[in-house]
Specification:
The protein is α/β, with parallel strands linked by helices and about 325 residues long. The protein has 12 helices and 10 strands. The termini are far apart. The chain binds iron/sulfur cluster (SF4) and zinc ion.
Length: about 325
Amino acid sequence: MLCRRCKEKAEIYLKRHNTAFCSNCFRIYYSEQVKRNVKREKMFKPKDRILVVVSGGKDSMALWHILLKLGYNVTGMYINLGISAYSDRSQEVVEKFSQANNAPVIIKNIEKEYGFSIPALAREIRRSTCSLCGTIKRYLFNKVAQDGGFDAVATGHNLDDEAATLLGNVLSWQEGYLARQSPVLPSTHPKLVKKVKPLFTLTERENLAYVLFNGIEFIHEECPHALGASSILYKEILNKLEDESPGTKQRFLTNFYKKGRKFFEKYSEPVKLNECKICGQVTTSEICSFCRIRLMVEKKKADSILQEGDGFNL
Ligand code: SF4
Ligand code: ZN
Protein backbone atom coordinates (compact mmCIF):
# COMPACT_ATOMS: atom_id res chain seq x y z
CA MET A 1 0.00 0.00 0.00
CA LEU A 2 1.25 3.48 -0.87
CA CYS A 3 1.07 6.76 1.05
CA ARG A 4 -1.76 8.92 -0.27
CA ARG A 5 0.34 12.09 -0.21
CA CYS A 6 3.85 11.15 -1.37
CA LYS A 7 3.26 7.68 -2.90
CA GLU A 8 6.13 6.18 -0.86
CA LYS A 9 5.56 2.94 1.11
CA ALA A 10 2.72 3.48 3.62
CA GLU A 11 3.28 2.73 7.31
CA ILE A 12 -0.22 3.23 8.67
CA TYR A 13 -3.65 2.54 7.18
CA LEU A 14 -6.57 4.62 8.48
CA LYS A 15 -9.62 2.52 7.74
CA ARG A 16 -12.16 5.21 8.61
CA HIS A 17 -10.62 7.55 6.00
CA ASN A 18 -9.79 4.67 3.63
CA THR A 19 -6.34 6.15 3.33
CA ALA A 20 -2.73 5.29 4.16
CA PHE A 21 0.30 7.40 5.06
CA CYS A 22 4.05 7.03 5.43
CA SER A 23 5.32 8.21 8.83
CA ASN A 24 6.25 11.70 7.56
CA CYS A 25 2.92 12.34 5.88
CA PHE A 26 1.09 10.90 8.90
CA ARG A 27 2.81 13.56 11.06
CA ILE A 28 1.51 16.21 8.65
CA TYR A 29 -2.03 14.76 8.77
CA TYR A 30 -1.87 14.65 12.60
CA SER A 31 -0.64 18.19 12.97
CA GLU A 32 -3.27 19.49 10.48
CA GLN A 33 -6.01 17.82 12.54
CA VAL A 34 -4.76 19.48 15.76
CA LYS A 35 -4.36 22.90 14.10
CA ARG A 36 -7.86 22.62 12.62
CA ASN A 37 -9.43 21.59 15.95
CA VAL A 38 -7.75 24.44 17.84
CA LYS A 39 -8.85 26.99 15.23
CA ARG A 40 -12.34 25.74 14.41
CA GLU A 41 -13.34 25.25 18.05
CA LYS A 42 -11.61 28.50 19.11
CA MET A 43 -9.65 26.63 21.79
CA PHE A 44 -6.84 29.16 22.21
CA LYS A 45 -4.91 31.85 20.37
CA PRO A 46 -1.24 31.66 19.27
CA LYS A 47 0.06 33.76 22.17
CA ASP A 48 -2.10 32.14 24.91
CA ARG A 49 -0.44 30.28 27.78
CA ILE A 50 -1.57 26.66 27.87
CA LEU A 51 -1.30 24.24 30.79
CA VAL A 52 -1.17 20.70 29.39
CA VAL A 53 -2.29 17.93 31.70
CA VAL A 54 0.24 15.10 31.35
CA SER A 55 -0.03 11.61 32.81
CA GLY A 56 2.89 9.97 30.97
CA GLY A 57 0.46 8.00 28.75
CA LYS A 58 0.54 8.12 24.94
CA ASP A 59 -2.32 10.62 24.49
CA SER A 60 -1.07 13.34 26.81
CA MET A 61 2.55 12.89 25.69
CA ALA A 62 1.43 13.21 22.06
CA LEU A 63 -0.52 16.37 22.93
CA TRP A 64 2.42 17.93 24.81
CA HIS A 65 4.75 17.18 21.89
CA ILE A 66 2.48 18.44 19.09
CA LEU A 67 1.58 21.69 20.89
CA LEU A 68 5.28 22.40 21.49
CA LYS A 69 6.02 21.56 17.87
CA LEU A 70 3.30 23.91 16.66
CA GLY A 71 4.99 26.68 18.64
CA TYR A 72 2.39 27.21 21.37
CA ASN A 73 3.37 28.56 24.77
CA VAL A 74 2.94 25.31 26.69
CA THR A 75 3.70 24.15 30.24
CA GLY A 76 3.12 20.53 31.28
CA MET A 77 1.54 19.63 34.61
CA TYR A 78 1.86 16.23 36.21
CA ILE A 79 0.27 15.04 39.47
CA ASN A 80 1.88 12.14 41.32
CA LEU A 81 -1.18 10.45 42.84
CA GLY A 82 0.77 7.98 44.97
CA ILE A 83 -0.49 4.97 42.96
CA SER A 84 2.45 2.62 43.71
CA ALA A 85 5.08 2.04 41.03
CA TYR A 86 2.72 3.29 38.30
CA SER A 87 2.96 6.88 39.58
CA ASP A 88 6.74 6.81 39.95
CA ARG A 89 7.29 5.35 36.48
CA SER A 90 4.95 7.86 34.85
CA GLN A 91 6.63 10.79 36.65
CA GLU A 92 9.98 9.56 35.36
CA VAL A 93 8.66 9.55 31.77
CA VAL A 94 7.30 13.10 32.16
CA GLU A 95 10.55 14.44 33.69
CA LYS A 96 12.66 12.83 30.98
CA PHE A 97 10.54 14.39 28.23
CA SER A 98 10.68 17.77 29.92
CA GLN A 99 14.49 17.66 30.13
CA ALA A 100 15.03 16.30 26.61
CA ASN A 101 12.74 18.91 25.05
CA ASN A 102 13.58 21.80 27.34
CA ALA A 103 9.85 21.93 28.11
CA PRO A 104 8.68 23.49 31.38
CA VAL A 105 6.69 21.23 33.69
CA ILE A 106 4.96 21.64 37.05
CA ILE A 107 5.01 18.51 39.22
CA LYS A 108 2.70 18.06 42.19
CA ASN A 109 2.99 15.19 44.65
CA ILE A 110 -0.23 14.59 46.58
CA GLU A 111 1.36 12.52 49.32
CA LYS A 112 4.21 14.97 49.97
CA GLU A 113 2.04 18.10 49.78
CA TYR A 114 -1.13 16.95 51.48
CA GLY A 115 -0.09 13.89 53.49
CA PHE A 116 -2.21 11.23 51.75
CA SER A 117 -2.06 9.04 48.64
CA ILE A 118 -5.23 8.71 46.58
CA PRO A 119 -5.72 4.93 47.07
CA ALA A 120 -5.05 5.07 50.85
CA LEU A 121 -7.42 7.99 51.35
CA ALA A 122 -10.13 6.36 49.21
CA ARG A 123 -9.97 3.26 51.46
CA GLU A 124 -9.99 5.39 54.58
CA ILE A 125 -13.01 7.50 53.67
CA ARG A 126 -14.76 4.69 51.73
CA ARG A 127 -15.03 6.50 48.46
CA SER A 128 -14.32 5.20 44.95
CA THR A 129 -10.65 5.79 44.06
CA CYS A 130 -11.49 7.22 40.63
CA SER A 131 -14.13 9.65 41.87
CA LEU A 132 -11.77 10.92 44.60
CA CYS A 133 -8.92 11.12 42.08
CA GLY A 134 -11.14 13.07 39.63
CA THR A 135 -12.13 15.60 42.30
CA ILE A 136 -8.52 16.21 43.35
CA LYS A 137 -7.18 16.43 39.80
CA ARG A 138 -9.90 18.84 38.62
CA TYR A 139 -9.27 21.06 41.65
CA LEU A 140 -5.48 21.16 41.29
CA PHE A 141 -5.38 21.65 37.53
CA ASN A 142 -7.77 24.57 37.77
CA LYS A 143 -6.03 26.09 40.79
CA VAL A 144 -2.55 25.85 39.26
CA ALA A 145 -3.84 27.25 35.95
CA GLN A 146 -5.65 30.10 37.65
CA ASP A 147 -2.81 30.98 40.06
CA GLY A 148 -0.31 30.84 37.20
CA GLY A 149 -2.37 33.03 34.85
CA PHE A 150 -2.84 30.33 32.18
CA ASP A 151 -5.49 30.91 29.48
CA ALA A 152 -6.54 27.28 29.03
CA VAL A 153 -6.05 23.77 30.42
CA ALA A 154 -5.56 21.21 27.62
CA THR A 155 -6.15 17.48 28.09
CA GLY A 156 -5.32 14.52 25.84
CA HIS A 157 -8.90 13.20 25.53
CA ASN A 158 -9.16 11.43 22.18
CA LEU A 159 -11.99 10.34 19.88
CA ASP A 160 -12.33 6.97 21.64
CA ASP A 161 -12.63 8.67 25.06
CA GLU A 162 -15.19 11.17 23.86
CA ALA A 163 -17.30 8.62 21.97
CA ALA A 164 -17.26 6.29 25.03
CA THR A 165 -18.34 9.15 27.31
CA LEU A 166 -21.13 10.01 24.90
CA LEU A 167 -22.31 6.39 24.76
CA GLY A 168 -22.32 6.21 28.58
CA ASN A 169 -24.31 9.44 28.83
CA VAL A 170 -26.81 8.29 26.20
CA LEU A 171 -27.30 4.88 27.82
CA SER A 172 -28.43 6.53 31.04
CA TRP A 173 -29.88 9.69 29.42
CA GLN A 174 -27.78 12.06 31.48
CA GLU A 175 -29.36 15.21 30.04
CA GLY A 176 -27.11 17.64 31.94
CA TYR A 177 -23.90 15.83 30.92
CA LEU A 178 -25.11 15.58 27.31
CA ALA A 179 -25.77 19.33 27.26
CA ARG A 180 -22.26 20.07 28.53
CA GLN A 181 -20.20 17.49 26.58
CA SER A 182 -17.93 19.49 24.31
CA PRO A 183 -14.31 19.76 23.08
CA VAL A 184 -14.27 23.19 24.77
CA LEU A 185 -15.59 23.89 28.25
CA PRO A 186 -15.69 27.68 28.48
CA SER A 187 -14.94 29.54 31.68
CA THR A 188 -18.18 30.37 33.49
CA HIS A 189 -16.53 32.20 36.41
CA PRO A 190 -13.41 34.42 36.64
CA LYS A 191 -11.75 31.71 38.75
CA LEU A 192 -12.55 28.84 36.35
CA VAL A 193 -10.04 28.32 33.55
CA LYS A 194 -11.28 27.16 30.12
CA LYS A 195 -10.76 23.42 29.38
CA VAL A 196 -9.95 22.20 25.86
CA LYS A 197 -9.42 18.84 24.12
CA PRO A 198 -7.35 19.41 20.95
CA LEU A 199 -7.13 15.65 20.14
CA PHE A 200 -10.87 14.95 20.16
CA THR A 201 -10.95 13.91 16.48
CA LEU A 202 -7.88 11.64 16.71
CA THR A 203 -8.16 8.00 17.80
CA GLU A 204 -6.10 6.18 20.44
CA ARG A 205 -4.42 4.28 17.61
CA GLU A 206 -3.47 7.53 15.86
CA ASN A 207 -1.98 8.93 19.08
CA LEU A 208 -0.05 5.69 19.52
CA ALA A 209 1.26 5.96 15.96
CA TYR A 210 2.24 9.60 16.59
CA VAL A 211 4.32 8.80 19.69
CA LEU A 212 5.94 5.76 18.02
CA PHE A 213 6.80 7.62 14.78
CA ASN A 214 8.31 10.46 16.84
CA GLY A 215 10.21 8.20 19.28
CA ILE A 216 8.38 9.72 22.28
CA GLU A 217 8.68 7.63 25.44
CA PHE A 218 5.41 6.91 27.28
CA ILE A 219 4.10 4.66 30.02
CA HIS A 220 2.51 1.62 28.38
CA GLU A 221 0.42 0.32 31.25
CA GLU A 222 -2.90 1.85 32.29
CA CYS A 223 -3.51 3.03 35.85
CA PRO A 224 -4.36 -0.15 37.84
CA HIS A 225 -7.60 1.48 39.02
CA ALA A 226 -8.88 1.80 35.44
CA LEU A 227 -9.53 -1.97 35.35
CA GLY A 228 -13.25 -2.71 35.26
CA ALA A 229 -14.22 0.89 34.43
CA SER A 230 -17.41 1.04 32.32
CA SER A 231 -15.65 3.34 29.85
CA ILE A 232 -13.44 0.37 28.85
CA LEU A 233 -16.53 -1.71 28.05
CA TYR A 234 -18.03 1.15 26.01
CA LYS A 235 -14.77 1.47 24.08
CA GLU A 236 -14.79 -2.27 23.29
CA ILE A 237 -18.38 -2.06 22.03
CA LEU A 238 -17.57 0.98 19.89
CA ASN A 239 -14.47 -0.80 18.52
CA LYS A 240 -16.66 -3.72 17.39
CA LEU A 241 -19.00 -1.31 15.62
CA GLU A 242 -16.00 0.50 14.10
CA ASP A 243 -14.62 -2.80 12.73
CA GLU A 244 -17.91 -3.54 11.00
CA SER A 245 -18.53 0.02 9.89
CA PRO A 246 -15.40 2.24 9.82
CA GLY A 247 -16.08 5.83 10.80
CA THR A 248 -18.86 4.96 13.29
CA LYS A 249 -17.12 6.57 16.29
CA GLN A 250 -16.42 9.80 14.46
CA ARG A 251 -19.95 10.00 13.02
CA PHE A 252 -21.47 9.27 16.44
CA LEU A 253 -19.51 12.07 18.10
CA THR A 254 -19.42 14.75 15.44
CA ASN A 255 -23.08 14.31 14.49
CA PHE A 256 -23.98 14.60 18.16
CA TYR A 257 -22.16 17.96 18.27
CA LYS A 258 -23.74 19.08 14.98
CA LYS A 259 -27.27 17.73 15.37
CA GLY A 260 -27.96 16.13 18.74
CA ARG A 261 -26.57 18.37 21.48
CA LYS A 262 -28.93 21.25 20.80
CA PHE A 263 -31.86 19.15 22.03
CA PHE A 264 -30.26 19.00 25.48
CA GLU A 265 -29.30 22.67 25.81
CA LYS A 266 -32.30 23.43 28.01
CA TYR A 267 -30.83 21.08 30.63
CA SER A 268 -27.66 23.09 31.02
CA GLU A 269 -29.11 25.63 33.44
CA PRO A 270 -26.28 27.76 34.86
CA VAL A 271 -25.58 26.67 38.44
CA LYS A 272 -24.90 29.23 41.13
CA LEU A 273 -21.16 29.32 41.80
CA ASN A 274 -19.63 30.48 45.08
CA GLU A 275 -16.07 30.93 46.26
CA CYS A 276 -14.95 28.36 48.85
CA LYS A 277 -14.78 29.92 52.32
CA ILE A 278 -11.46 28.19 52.97
CA CYS A 279 -9.45 28.32 49.74
CA GLY A 280 -11.42 30.74 47.55
CA GLN A 281 -11.76 28.27 44.64
CA VAL A 282 -15.07 27.89 42.82
CA THR A 283 -17.68 25.58 44.31
CA THR A 284 -21.44 25.04 44.23
CA SER A 285 -21.57 24.87 48.05
CA GLU A 286 -19.91 26.90 50.80
CA ILE A 287 -16.78 24.76 51.14
CA CYS A 288 -15.32 23.04 48.08
CA SER A 289 -14.95 19.23 47.86
CA PHE A 290 -11.15 19.48 48.04
CA CYS A 291 -11.21 21.44 51.31
CA ARG A 292 -13.83 19.06 52.72
CA ILE A 293 -11.48 16.16 51.93
CA ARG A 294 -8.58 17.97 53.61
CA LEU A 295 -10.71 18.70 56.69
CA MET A 296 -11.67 15.03 56.85
CA VAL A 297 -8.00 13.99 56.67
CA GLU A 298 -7.06 16.44 59.44
CA LYS A 299 -9.93 15.20 61.65
CA LYS A 300 -8.88 11.58 61.16
CA LYS A 301 -5.28 12.47 62.08
CA ALA A 302 -6.43 14.33 65.21
CA ASP A 303 -8.72 11.41 66.21
CA SER A 304 -5.92 8.89 65.89
CA ILE A 305 -3.56 11.08 67.99
CA LEU A 306 -6.26 11.35 70.66
CA GLN A 307 -6.83 7.58 70.61
CA GLU A 308 -3.09 6.96 71.04
CA GLY A 309 -3.15 9.41 73.97
CA ASP A 310 -6.06 7.53 75.58
CA GLY A 311 -4.15 4.28 75.29
CA PHE A 312 -1.14 5.85 76.95
CA ASN A 313 -3.21 7.21 79.86
CA LEU A 314 -4.75 3.81 80.48
FE1 SF4 B 1 -7.29 8.33 38.77
FE2 SF4 B 1 -8.98 6.30 38.32
FE3 SF4 B 1 -7.77 7.53 36.29
FE4 SF4 B 1 -6.35 5.98 37.95
S1 SF4 B 1 -8.01 5.31 36.57
S2 SF4 B 1 -5.75 8.00 37.18
S3 SF4 B 1 -7.36 6.40 39.90
S4 SF4 B 1 -9.24 8.44 37.69
ZN1 ZN C 1 -11.73 25.05 49.09
